[in-house]
Amino acid sequence: xxxxxxxxxxxxxxxxxxxxxxxxxxxxxxxxxxxxxxxxxxxxxxxxxxxxxxxxxxxxxxxxxxxxxxxxxxxxxxxxxxxxxxxxxxxxxxxxxxxxxxxxxxxxxxxxxxxxxxxxxxxxxxxxxxxxxxxxxxxxxxxxxxxxxxxxxxxxxxxxxxxxxxxxxxxxxxxxxxxxxxxxxxxxxxxxxxxxxxxxxxxxxxxxxxxxxxxxxxxxxxxxxxxxxxxxxxxxxxxxxxxxxxxxxxxxxxxxxxxxxxxxxxxxxxxxxxxxxxxxxxxxxxxxxxxxxxxxxxxxxxxxxxxxxxxxxxxxxxxxxxxxxxxxxxxxxxxxxxxxxxxxxxxxxxxxxxxxxxxxxxxxxxxxxxxxxxxxxxxxxxxxxxxxxxxxxxxxxxxxxxxxxxxxxxxxxxxxxxxxxxxxxxxxxxxxxxxxxxxxxxxxxxxxxxxxxxxxxxxxxxxxxxxxxxxxxxxxxxxxxxxxxxxxxxxxxxxxxxxxxxxxxxxxxxxxxxxxxxxxxxxxxxxxxxxxxxxxxxxxxxxxxxxxxxxxxxxxxxxxxxxxxxxxxxxxxxxxxxxxxxxxxxxxxxxxxxxxxxxxxxxxxxxxxxxxxxxxxxxxxxxxxxxxxxxxxxxxxxxxxxxxxxxxxxxxxxxxxxxxxxxxxxxxxxxxxxxxxxxxxxxxxxxxxxxxxxxxxxxxxxxxxxxxxxxxxxxxxxxxxxxxxxxxxxxxxxxxxxxxxxxxxxxxxxxxxxxxxxxxxxxxxxxxxxxxxxxxxxxxxxxxxxxxxxxxxxxxxxxxxxxxxxxxxxxxxxxxxxxxxxxxxxxxxxxxxxxxxxxxxxxxxxxxxxxxxxxxxxxxxxxxxxxxxxxxxxxxxxxxxxxxxxxxxxxxxxxxxxxxxxxxxxxxxxxxxxxxxxxxxxxxxxxxxxxxxxxxxxxxxxxxxxxxxxxx
Length: 952
Fold this sequence. Notes:
Elements (H helix, E strand, L loop, with lengths): L17 H7 L10 H11 L12 H8 L3 H23 L10 H21 L5 H6 L5 E6 L2 E6 L8 E5 L7 E13 L1 H4 L5 E2 L18 E2 L4 E13 L5 H11 L6 H32 L5 H15 L4 H18 L2 E3 L4 H4 L5 E5 L5 E12 L2 E5 L10 E3 L2 E2 L6 H12 L4 E5 L2 E5 L2 H12 L4 H7 L2 E5 L7 E7 L1 H4 L4 H4 L2 H4 L7 E7 L1 H6 L1 E6 L2 E4 L2 H16 L3 E10 L8 H4 L3 E13 L3 H10 L3 E5 L4 H11 L7 E4 H6 L2 H7 L3 E5 L3 H13 L4 E5 L5 H6 L2 E5 L5 H6 L2 E3 L4 H41 L9 H11 L1 H7 L25 H27 L10 H20 L16 H19 L1 H7 L6 H28 L5
Parallel strand pairs: 9-23, 9-26, 19-22, 23-25, 24-25, 26-27, 27-28
Antiparallel strand pairs: 1-2, 1-3, 3-7, 4-5, 4-6, 4-7, 8-28, 10-11, 10-22, 11-12, 12-13, 14-15, 16-17, 17-18, 18-21, 19-20, 21-22
């Protein structure tokens, strides 16, 4: 068969014998491919590189910012304003000292600033694919044309014979031809931390999961030990890494709930503004029976258009989200994409990995079984302090010498080191062996001391076939030539008669027990009866059913050091010591975090590659799994259709033996059910699921660069409790965003109605210029809005279900509040405007006849200060709140009021903004009318309290 006839992806390589795979790819194990075949396959398959689909350019991202409907309207307003100024300049109608085009320049400056803010948020390109590309090896050794050559990895083609050795990064997927002690670290791809022992001779079922395919190797993984000869089967985008790249690029980024709400808000505001402008212009034309007053009508329309757009809102939202990210970083949650801060508040489901996130990623011995007794072991992590308990009562070790004997085996048959670093106990080596060292230290057995008492002279290392390891140690008393009984520690004195060596064995309880003929009881050794053997196996099953990882221990006195490779004969006739059951213990703070989730209406789900018994034990202990919750294994999930998974996904709280590629299906099924999903992950294979999830959460400690680049948030401490804290912060941010939107848009509606009313009630001119409106929207509204953005959380923020991420920005009464408050604003201001106009046009008035406009401008601004103070709480009266719980609001009110008065009383500012001097009586009247806004909002709270209703 030629390469050209090979149908891509037709073969399931792990299910084929080596000869069949070589035949399908028309390759030779000794000579590899010929130059002609290589050239043909390069043309057919292309270079061994990950391909990137076209994405938006920098200019496209920037131009897209100006397609926002509110910015388009402002651009239109700026152009019309510039045209009117140009006409006035030509006709000489400008007042002395008046600066032309200042409104146009100010509006365009705001448009450009908002465009830049949007660009900065959106321009952070996805770098997940770039991180994937870094995982490919630059050079590789292959056999071609019967010669060993080194080539660039991108030149590999299916059918190449590739050579691997320790330390190499694998450059393509391939079927093992032959191997010697090959171990490959596939954690980045499968999520499993331990290196995998590969075996070329295996032929596996087609449905074998990725992590269990022991006869193939994958691009991007690393050879830890051994060497191998590999037949390259897949390159570029057809590798497992390439499939991930494809999935990453197929996942489309959806707008966040906040982005959708802001789009909706813009559409409503602009549509409403245009309708109002049309009413005013048409009404004015009908009233004047012609277009004689069209310039004044256009000026009114421009002011209304500027008034309706909350120019400061994008900046306030951006700053609010940025402040939220700072608070989250202090809680070990690093936000990579700014809108994710608010999005967290909408989460309904948190799908979390088990190892390291729900658990400590530290194996801790929970149970020890010796001499027909099972002891409970107390302690946290690798800290070697804790007690042994029997029937919930603390025991004294001298009463149970078999515990010390077992602890010696745990310390001596061990390759790891327990040490204290920066005040914390840590393990150097395998976590399982770390747990055994910690157990031994709790029993008073220290490895360093016992390494001198029982120095290691030989060993039979662990292998996946044997599922055990043995260590041969020389007994100190014999080695030093002392009298035997004096030189041996009492903990092992009963192990020996006159033998100079001891062999300690640990491993699979069933396989280790099968090689035992005796049992250690107290200080004696007795023949192992069938009844005792069955009791040990029952205890092993009981421990395993609780989710514990169980190891069996045994020993054997030896007269001489056994020869290398004699493990099969030497590991016979062992003396049974006991069972040790350990668990990757839950983080102590996670139980409270899970309960907080449930109180907040958020469903936690565990997803793990671990055994289902272990998964259920941990999930039940933490409160994730409840009565009736279903557990789904990876194999069961694999057999389900997408429709079947969607029907079951709300019933499943535990996914066990699941591969990372299943996560994408779980996320999509939850999303089709309308759930808003946060998903954790750390491996390369997790990246598509992280990108698909509404909130992708990567691990900061164990996570790969690929997973971090695909995520919205990185957990700096890999802790589930941090996700819950970040979710709480997201809710606070969304609540505060709604609060200042109410604040800003309530006044904007008041401004629009006031401007529209001026010509309707027959007042001459426009009460507010576009520049004054920009001042109100940016400064008078902006500063207090920023202060409201740091309002502390309400007490019940995590005692209620999440609000629907699909709810309108106007939901739960916010729209009616804005309209109601806007109308009250307008009524108060129009009443003042009518009085001020009559006052300034009264006979004998000494001031400027246009000072009524400044009174309107000042009243609107000061009324907003009362609004800011009152809106801090929806239900509590201002006098019931601590005024210093948000000192920023008080500061913003004081600073904004001073700035507003400067526009009236500082001549250069007065001239630039077109205001007029107000006497103390006029200023007092402005403050009096403005105070009515504060009184109204407080009265609303009292009314709602009497009616038994809760405010928005």
